[in-house]
Design brief:
Helices cover 33% and strands 16% of the residues. The chain contains six helices and eight strands, in the order βαβααβββββαβαα.
Length: 182
């Protein structure tokens, strides 16, 4: 991640116009390669859908014992209820209340929810499938009253094919130069 103290906010509407698309792509490339984490505004997910999903999440977390039936440890996929303190993201238990993003220098910066945006984190799968050109960001959480919905996706075939492979610095540098357009 770059040594910025803020998370970039990308406006998806800029990608829809031929005159502003290069500006959007430049910011997206910088977010993918240098930061690994960004907010996306003017996205196509309707506010009503987001609010309904949050309401259902609040309802789930308000259930007494039933939520333990869908505990993530009992699920085959990364889906379900995660008890406070059972999520480990940075070598310790996470409260899953407020996100923080780690810079390459190891400094943690806050990534609070921004109204009207989606939060995108570049995961290890994308980092791996781009041979390290896109940066995976280490995230953690801090204490606070904060609920968020995570949608995690992966590419199992890419992981099986690329993750075990050791990639040379020359290949990584060449790919980075291609992505950056140099």
């Amino acid at each position: 991640m770059s040594e910025s103290t803020t998370i970039p906010v990308l406006n998806l509407s800029l990608a829809r116009s031929p005159t502003t698309k290069p500006q959007f792509l430049s910011k997206l490339r910088d977010a993918l390669v240098r930061v690994g984490f960004f907010y996306l505004e003017n996205h196509p997910v309707p506010e009503q859908v987001q609010q309904e999903a949050m309401q259902e999440s609040r309802h789930l977390f308000a259930l007494p014992l039933q939520k333990c039936e869908v505990d993530i440890v009992n699920r085959r996929h990364f889906f379900g209820h995660i008890r406070t303190g059972s999520e480990v993201t940075n070598g310790g238990a996470a409260g899953l209340y407020c996100l923080e993003v780690q810079t390459q220098a190891g400094v943690w910066i806050a990534a609070p929810p921004l109204p009207g945006t989606l939060v995108l984190n570049i995961g290890r799968m994308l980092e791996c499938s781009t041979h390290g050109v896109c940066a995976a960001t280490t995230i953690d959480s801090t204490v606070g009253n904060y609920l968020f919905l995570a949608y995690l996706t992966g590419f199992p075939d890419v992981a099986a094919r690329w993750y075990p492979a050791l990639l040379s610095r020359a290949v990584n540098k060449q790919l980075e130069l291609q992505v950056l357009g140099h």
